[in-house]
Amino acid sequence: MEKIYLKDEKETRGIGYRLGKLLNKGNVVCLIGDLGAGKTTITKSIANALDVHDYITSPTFTIVNEYEGRLPLYHFDVYRISSSEEMYEIGFEEYIYGQGVCIIEWANLIEDILPDNYLKVELNYKEEGREMILTPFGSEYEKIVEELLK
Ligand code: ADP
Ligand code: MG
């Protein structure tokens, strides 16, 4: 577990971009944090780093939005999900074991169905900025965090 203080939005975007550059096909990034913590901000920067040129908006009503980039990007926002069953109905497993990068906002709400390996990114309000807590599950994600902190 690594903690990083992000003093402003620019720093949030910076770390998101660098994280995006380190992601590979099949990676899953779980974003956890209150409303306004910066989950969508990070997602936009990751999308930038993946050469996604479309404008990213939170898929609040659709659960998942798909984008073309260096790798396909699957952006989930599961805030309105009522049970994990709904995730299976939209084909969650094909996404997470697929060829793209999955980013899941509010992933704590579907913790029971997350894969064994993923990168957990928590964002908390702290002073004027945000605290980011990175917890890698699996050696691939440990390496990504190591690279990110270099
Ligand atoms: P979420 O998707 O978690 O609800 P958003 O990314 O939509 O959050 O919004 C985050 C808000 O916080 C934006 O207004 C952004 O400018 C701001 N923000 C992002 N990172 C920081 C930071 N490190 N310090 C202060 N404000 C930030
Ligand atoms: Mg959001």
Automatic annotation (TrEMBL):
* UniProt keyword annotation of Membrane present: no
Q: Which UniProt keywords apply?
A: ATP-binding, Cytoplasm, Magnesium, Metal-binding, Nucleotide-binding, tRNA processing
- Which BP terms does GO give this entry? tRNA threonylcarbamoyladenosine modification
Q: Name one Pfam family in it.
A: TsaE
- The answer to whether the entry has keyword Flavoprotein is no
Q: What is its main location?
A: cytoplasm
Q: Which residues cross the membrane?
A: none
Q: Which Gene3D superfamilies did the record assign?
A: P-loop containing nucleotide triphosphate hydrolases (3.40.50.300)
The record's similarity note reads:
Belongs to the TsaE family.
Q: What's the name of the protein?
A: tRNA threonylcarbamoyladenosine biosynthesis protein TsaE
Q: Which organism is it from?
A: Tepidibacter formicigenes DSM 15518
